[in-house]
Each structure stands twice: as C-alpha cells, then as structure tokens.
Amino acid sequence: MEKLVCISCKTDISTVKGSTMFMCPGCGKFKIIRCGKCRVISADYKCPECGFEGP
Ligand SMILES: [Zn+2]
Ligand SMILES: [Zn+2]
Question: What is the domain range of residue 35?
Fold first, then answer.
C-alpha cells in the first residue's frame, strides 16, 4: 500500500489534521496530496506528471 505523503513537505499526512488530496487540475492523472500545514501556508506544489504548478 502506498504511503500518503504531502507533495510539498513529504510529511505523512495521516499525522496531520486537515490534509487533502485531489487529482491534478492539469492532467487529472496524478494524485496531489497536501498536508494541513501546507494548505495553511499555501505552499507551492508541482505535478511530476505534467508540470502543473499551483498554490
Ligand atoms: Zn506539507
Ligand atoms: Zn498533472
């Protein structure tokens, strides 16, 4: 089973409250996982699949 880690800070999101995951808005193929902390600070993320960057 794959570990769910934040795409920005690589934290295991099961330990962070308010974490979220969604499919990449750019390609719709890659699952973007963000921890609650990175959501609060609006950390940047980049899709390794298509290069989409978002806040
Ligand atoms: Zn994070
Ligand atoms: Zn993508």
Answer: 13-54
